[in-house]
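Intended use. Records such as the Alanine--tRNA ligase entry shown here are meant for training and evaluating sequence-to-structure methods. They are not intended to support clinical decisions.
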Amino acid sequence: MPAPEARLWNVLRELGSHHHFRRRVQIGPYYADFLCHRAKLVIEVDGDSHFVEDGPEYDRVKSECFAQDGFRVLRFTNDEVMKNLEGVTASIVAELTPPPLIPPHEGEGDDEHQPSFKLSIWAGADQLAPPSPPCGEGMRVGVFRPRTRYRIPISPALHLSRHHVKKPRFSYLDVTRVLAHESPCMISVNDLRSSFTGYFALNGHEAVPSSPLVPRNDPTLMFTNAGMVQFKNVFTGVEKRPYSTATTAQKCVRAGGKHNDLDNVGFTARHHTFFEMLGNFSFGDYFKERAIELAWNLLTKEWELPRDKLMVTIYQDDDEAMALWKKVAGLSEDRIVRLGAKSNFWQMGDTGPCGPCSEIFYDHGDKVWGGPPGSPDEDGDRWIEIWNLVFMQFEQHADGSRTGLPRPSIDTGMGLERVAAVMQGVHDNYDIDLFKALIAAAANATNSDVAGPGNRSLRVIADHLRSMSFLIAEGVLPSNEGRGYVLRRIMRRAMRHATLLGASEPTIFKLVPTLVREMGQAYPELSRGEAMITETVRLEEGRFLKTLGRGLQVLEAETAGLGEGATLSGDTAFKLHDTYGFPLDLTQDALRSRGISVDQAGFDAAMAQQKAEARKNWAGSGEAAADTVWYGLADKLGPTEFLGYETETAEAEIKALLVDGAEVQSIEAGQEGLVVVNQTPFYGESGGQVGDTGVITAEGTRADVTDTNKFHGVFAHKVKVNEGSLKVGQAVELVVDHDRRSSIRANHSATHLLHEALRLVLGDHVAQKGSLVSADRLRFDFVHTKPISSQEMAEIEDIANSIILQNTPVETRLMGVEEAKKSGARALFGEKYGDEVRVVSMGEPTGNGLGWSVELCGGTHVRRTGDIGLVSIVGESAVAAGVRRVEALTGKAARHRGNTNVAIVSSAAGLLRSGTQEVLERIEALQEQLKRNERALADARQKLALGGGGEAGSAGETVNGVTFVGRVVEGVAAKDIKSVVDAEKKRIGSGVVVLVLKGEDGKGTVAIGVTDDLTGKYAAGTLIKSATAALGGQGGGGRPDMAQGGGPDGAKANEAIAAIRELL
């Protein structure tokens, strides 16, 4: 990147998540230097991107192209950026800053004809009002009331009616929807999400962010599929949180296993692979009455749903719930339906917490078929469940009995998409504002009609776009196993539907910016990962289109002999599905017009067998299952105080000892076990950094620490006691292996520098997928779709070493996690951070005032970048599709490798009798000479095989009027025998040539050539079978004019020739 662009890029990256810029973005036929989608702003830096005489005209045409797509353009010269960066930055910030909203004034809005506040609208802005708060933060002020109306005094050209405010309860309005010509009083999905969490936050609940889709604490789950998953250990009492009530908007995926909605998506009104579950939870705090009260008040008072549209169900024996619904909600008994355990009793498993539940249903009206819950027509779509309140009050035992829980709890779940449909007055989830935007974008990308026959395909694409994007944002990539396989299946189903709409090139990746615009506010990981998501989807689409073409060819070959009424075997259909990514329904569609059916039962059997194999190989997810022992120790002892940032030695008291997973009072000489102390300088393995080693000593006692781990804040030192014994309550001294720790520190700091250098050289899509920081080397896995060139590798290494040479201090600051992220610090998605985090910055400060590299990190680091010494990349490879790995050495190890390489080059120069600078040139010359010699040798062997160069007298014999050349050859490579046969065919003009090569291993290779004028009579592919049989082999094959085969008995070469002569 040219220096002016690089300098400006550092500034743009620090503007924060609300103004996410990307660089080198294609818009039509041109590339924009920098682009902010949200602000519809392009920034151009002139001087280096083009060298043409008509530069101003080129700039004008380019700007007009951007303007046609709705983008504003700011243009700066190189000199302006280099000499007046502060002024350039001020211009950009001014362009990004919208006029403020005028807040509501006290006392206004009660009169139906008086506005409660005025709203300024400015031209060209993409986001016309402050965004909804990110998911989990709750409302900034108040709670949104959907039927509260806002008067918006703007241009009459927008055809908006004037509305009023009855009670100003909400601090701002999402005017984007208004300007999209939707009802100004309709609550958007984003506002509804914020309204829910805001309501419960105002009622004393902790607003907890969504947990990742890849569960950390449940190895049995492939994906998070409910809001309570992240609280499972809290409900069971294994884990404690600093709050007793919580509210969340949880990301969920159901696309495999028990909860598999994939095949129904797009064909029903409410099935999704990705959905959001709104919920409120009580961990032994309030119970039934308060849960019912909170739910009823939100629905009927805050959201103002008509009471006569609501009905509830309860468990058949739950008289308490019946009484409470009457008391709190004033419902009559005919609006409360008692149902059995199948629908209204919830269990976490065969044993554990369980309890009755109460579901709230909404009536979509008599225009929709269906009956209320419990009726014969309950499966219809008229009455839709919108909220489930689970009352966890029992403990289920193995013998089937139940006892009361000492602290009953509440777990509720409300599907955001379902309730949004209710609040927006539509019956189908795909008609809510979020899906309308995604479907419109998909229709535009595929040139389809939203209301046309392809509507179902558009719905599939819109749904699957969400699940694939969120999974990729969390680091899941398409593959052939585990989560990656499920993701690939989702992606390819969407891609197949894109092809059904006529797409013949990658298309779905173009929809990612629309999704980011719709959901990036609530889920910033989408904005952060937009480039990575886009590129991953684009590449997978390219692969799919290729496999689709191959699959159609294979299908044609497999069914070439099948006529109307025939059946394609299930095994073949599954091979198409499994090997070529060719879905069963596409196979069925392709064969339907030919009257060929597919063996569905055989396909299902093959699929079931594969699933059984997958289950055998499934290793669980995320962290290991929650270990009751360590939760218990964490609860009893509290977290271990880590002193390792300041010191490598410390005195401590042994608080617990474990041998084979069980607590003991002592560990004797010769035994191994785990030691827990109140404070430690030993780093516990986490964040890719290995645990420390060292020694624990006391009077008469010495134990080697071979590893250190961390479980729920408790540090476990793995020890082998060499002399004496360790006892609970004993005072000990802990000493970390200094040299090993120093090497680890250098490697960890170098990892941060390489991460930033990779992003600068390869692009913003680079995201960490994993790392290993040990004493002898470092390994860094990251998202990138192609091998790194040697030139890029050298640039990455040079950039990292330039920061090392600055020898600036490595700064570590404690900050709030949100403050840290806003400062630009990079966070590893999926890593669990507390409220306060360590922010590690290296290199000279940039616009953020922190440093060149800024990351959230709890690891140990060098004091100054110069302490790393040197970083040397020693390898680059592919780990998985879309994931690359670099390995590197630092310090003494890097220097040793450099010295070794210098010695190797010097030795090579001596052997080549050249200077070290000419080694490469001499090797290249020798390689060329070797190639020439090999070609000459091959030519000589071919002439020898042809009988001394093909002189007259070796023209063969005539058999049945056909020229026949049969010869045993030696000294020819097996790969060259066909070219020798071709040469003989040309020499004789017309005839049959048989050459048999006797290999050094005793095996025989035979090649048969037939000139084109004789292939109708003698096919080489048929003749070859007799020749290979004579050699003791089977088969062989090829074209009518050329075939090759072989057998184990090369001594029978003449018999093979005779067999062909006999056939002629």
